[in-house]
Amino acid sequence: VVAPGGSARRLLKAIVTKFTMFSNRKQPGRFLSGRGGKGLEVEETYTSLDRARHFATSKLSLQRLVFVNELVDCAHEIGYEATVEYLLPLVKQLADDAEVLVRQSLVRHFGDLAGFLIQSDPERGY
Question: Per the confidence metrics, is the pTM higher than 0.85?
Answer without folding.
Answer: no
